Amino acid sequence: MKRNKQINIKRALALAGAFNFLLSCARGCLLPFLTLYFRQLGLTPTETGIVMGTKYLICQVWSPVGSLLSKHYNKRRVVINGCLVGSAAVALLLPFIPPVNVNTMNSTCNTSELKVSPTEIVGFSGVTQPANGKDSVSHFGVTFPVKKHHYKAEEKSDTMPQKKITVQVSSSTEKTNTSTSFHISNPVPARNERSKTKDLPKEKMSQGENEGSGFLDSLKGMDIQHQLFFLILIAVSVWEVASAPLDWTMDDGLYEYLDFADAADRHSSAGVWGLLGTACGVGGTGLLVSQLSCRVAAETPRSVVHFFCYAGLAALTLPVVFFLPLYLNKKHGRANGLLKAVQLVRGSPRALLCAITTLLVGMGTSAVDNFLLWQMQDHRSTELHMGFSLALGLLSQLAFPLIAGRLSKVLSPARVLTVGAASLGVQCFYYSFLWGPWAVLPAQVLSCFSGGALWWAVQVQCDDVATPGAERSVRRVYTALSLDLGRGLGSFTGGFVAQRLGLVWLFRLVALGLMVWCVCLPLLQFKAPRQRRINYSRLLAADASEASDSESEQERDWLDKAMEDGKSNNNYGRRISH
């Protein structure tokens, strides 16, 4: 077969872009809202952090292993299809996990529909921030800064009759302003209402408990909260095992295909469609879910729409996989390439500082990914506000190439790396002072630097430290440090901090840690020994010239020797003839 008929670069890039767009769109429909769904089920911040941290660590270990196995057995297309089908199937099973309490799934949606005055602020979280600046803990609490008197809030539910809840008011008076915060705890009854619950018939209470428990009653030996936690942990772990090898397997197959066609430099163009697809997915799903009522069916909350959108888009991605060009080059050893990349990063002080920065940025990003929507929900944000805000942050990252040329003339890549990490710190500090549904928008514009500029600087560092052929391996080392290891460690610690100190102090501590590192990073970069970049093109040219000189010298030696032998033979013949 002729090589021209086998290789079609434009078609390969178009199919790769379509695949990345559909897959990223599917993930954008669900993954940004996943921790918000866990909160509605009844998980605490610590439990949510453990679940997400386990997810990231499984991805870090299983992604390279699954990719190597698929390459060894030449089953890349089968692995990609299996990952899509398996992840979609597990995603459809997650909504069947019952919440801790039967009313938990709808409490947030119902309280968001309360009629309040424009001066009142409604929040929903396990940790609320009153107007006096002190944290107070309540289960899906609602915070209102109002005047110094008592109010009554009404809550409507489809399954329960209309009831009135007396709200206790605690005020704090200052010289400048007077603000009062009070909490509506639902569905946990207040202490002064426990006497009323005792008068209820035992049959109704047991019926409600059975409805709230469901399948969790089959797990004996632990309370219902821990049953829910372990069920979600197992389901998310299975989901990550099913979907983790997808990215690496597809990326390796496409790169080797383009490398075989001498077009490996165009491989990065397919990644732009990933960010665009994620922005469309998160924005479109947020708009769709916000337009629905609290329940899409008799007992189905509207949050399950995220899971169905994910499964539907994953199914649409399957036909693209059958036409996706995947090339198998058994000469490339990815395992050895990763080990060599780790040695290159460890051997360069500046590359090591860049690796530490990406690790810290990954830990800070985990706080934003896991708990930003919780903080937004505390200030009356709906899925519409959340989806639009996240989409704006992703689109701002896509806008960075427009200013990359001018920025590179003003700042060096090392300083751009510092600016990117500092921008994330400013974002986290801003998130701790949200006051309304749309208040998060100004900070999302900074994603152009905390996301786009930072990874541009990392890319430059990869090119500096990598040897020819090892650029992708070095880039994957930085990606694994930030996206998997950093976010995993950040999820564990972030959940614990949010449980102990609250969401506000979580973002403030993340901002403080990043700012301290950004102050130390330029000093460490200044003291680090500057390694001279090797110009491999000149070395190759020098090697070629030396080789040509040696070949010419060998040819001259051979010619001189042949001429001498010819002269000697002629002289010997003449002597014999005489």
Automatic annotation (TrEMBL):
Protein's name according to its UniProt entry: Major facilitator superfamily associated domain-containing protein
Transmembrane segments: 78-97, 228-246, 305-328, 349-372, 384-404, 416-433, 439-458, 503-524
UniProt xrefs under PROSITE patterns: PROKAR_LIPOPROTEIN
Compartmental location: Membrane
Domain Major facilitator superfamily associated: 18-508
Biased composition (Low complexity): 170-181
Basic and acidic residues composition-biased segments: 191-206, 553-567
InterPro entries per UniProt: MFS_assoc_dom (IPR024989), MFS_MFSD6 (IPR051717), MFS_trans_sf (IPR036259)
Signal peptide coordinates: none
Region (Disordered): 170-212, 545-578
Pfam families: MFS_1_like
GO cellular component, one term: membrane
Family according to the record: Belongs to the major facilitator superfamily. MFSD6 family.
